[in-house]
Amino acid sequence: MPPPTPQRSGRATAIVISVLVLLLVVGSTAAYITVDQTDMLATPTGDIEPGTADDGPPPRPDDDADRLEVIDFVEGTIEHDLGNRSEALLDNDREGWMRAVDSPADEQMELLFDNLQTMGVSRYDFDVSRPREGSSDDEYEIRVTVTQCFSTPVEDCWPIDGDYHTTWQDLGEDEGFELTGFEADDSEWTRPFPWEIEPLTALAGRNTLAVAPSHMEGELDNYLSMSEGAASVSDPWEVWEEPDQYLVFFADKNAFDEWFGGIDDNDGGVLGYATVLEGTIEGTQKNSASITVMGVDNHRDNGQLRSTVRHELAHAATRWAAPEVRAKPEAWWFIEGIAEYIDQGETDVRSYLRSYGMKDFVDDGLCDNGIVPSDSDDGEEISAKYGCAYLGVRYLLDNFDREQFEEVFAAVGREGKTVKIQVESILDVDYDDLMSDIGDYIREMI
């Protein structure tokens, strides 16, 4: 999300904002990152949950066993090992988690243990692919999918999946297998996850988990307060799916450039974003939780940061577990407009910060005949587009039943259906006439 234009006289030059458009998902700096994990390289063999290691590892095959029998043994042994590690993690048992781990995996596993405990990990299941022989004798490579939850009971959580490339060394019958590599799959759009790369601090509230780099611990109470306040504002809009808990990440500049794939933001104009992640639900990998990330260093004060948190949690609430993340470009104003509306409500337009820089753009026809994503790098123009989106949604909510708006939003903002067809069918209006009326309303309000 870009910042609103500061109040000023005339049309002074604004800060240039780097706009991130990812596959035209929403076409704005409040970017939704499309997560597509359908091209899995290996077929999983099943979930490994805590406590499944009680049966013990499979017996080691004879020296003359065929390759398939050996691979079956390796797979079963690793499944047993990971089941034990999962159980140790959930029991806060560092020694059990770190058992039989060697360099270079040791530092990564130590960091994961610390961060997962900090974030209140409540689920950590492994899904293992078929092993393949590694580059040296008795080495095996295995692709692993982790399904994880934080700070909420397993039965209530919307899980997050992450793939890892692991390597294992068979040390023989007496010593068993040793974990020597545990690396995140950096080919995924949303990697690395913050808990994979740096020490974190976290604080859980009733509806949110606020997370930041460890050096920002002194601000954590403030961040949690902002997050809880934003969650209460978004609560009335949890009408399609009910989030278990909002994961709200507060990033310094370095983290903002790296977490969840990072943001191309050389000018510091992107304030935050929300992303839908996938998770394994009832055995099927599908869109699940939405995470939000705030670029703390890009905000001028706490008031602006608080507004961004409300805006991004509004995205999370309205797009939580959305079946289709590739919304059409013409649906952009619905997605950004409702986020602005949840943040601002029915505020006096004269106190709406984006209104200060809108008038000239609106008079020039910026939002006539449709409100589409801006292809400009002019910060004032981008901010004006967000303002038009806000007023467009406000017009709909003032002139139609909320249930009608929710039905339209579900179709175009969550399911990726064609805007014109859905609006005309559900609202029983001509779409072009509606957009003309909205354009007149925006001119009147500004």
Question: What's this entry about, in short?
Answer:
The chain has 446 residues and is α+β, with helices and mostly antiparallel strands. It has twelve helices and eleven strands.
Order of helices and strands: EHHHEEEEEEEHEHEEHHHHHHH
Number of helices: 12
Chain-averaged pLDDT:
87
For the termini, the CA-CA separation is 21 Å
DSSP helix fraction:
25-40%
User: Strand share of the residues?
Assistant: 15-25%
Task: Please describe the structure with a list of short key phrases separated by commas or semicolons.
single chain, 446 residues, 6-stranded antiparallel sheet
Explain what this protein looks like in three dimensions.
The chain is α+β, with helices and mostly antiparallel strands and 446 residues long. It is built from twelve helices and eleven strands. The chain has helices at residues 67-90, 94-97, 105-118, 220-234, 253-256, 302-319, 332-344, 359-363, 379-399, 402-414, 419-427, 431-445, and strands at residues 47-48, 121-128, 132-133, 139-150, 160-170, 177-184, 200-204, 208-213, 246-251, 272-281, 284-295. Strands 1, 2, 3, 4, 5 and 6 form a six-stranded antiparallel β-sheet that branches. Strands 7-8-9-11-10 form a five-stranded mixed β-sheet. The chain starts with 46 loop residues before the first strand and ends with a helix. The model is unreliable at 6-46 (pLDDT under 50).
Element layout with pairings:
Blueprint: E1 47-48, H1 67-90, H2 94-97, H3 105-118, E2 121-128, E3 132-133, E4 139-150, E5 160-170, E6 177-184, E7 200-204, E8 208-213, H4 220-234, E9 246-251, H5 253-256, E10 272-281, E11 284-295, H6 302-319, H7 332-344, H8 359-363, H9 379-399, H10 402-414, H11 419-427, H12 431-445
Helix pairs in contact: 4-6, 6-7, 7-9, 9-12, 10-11
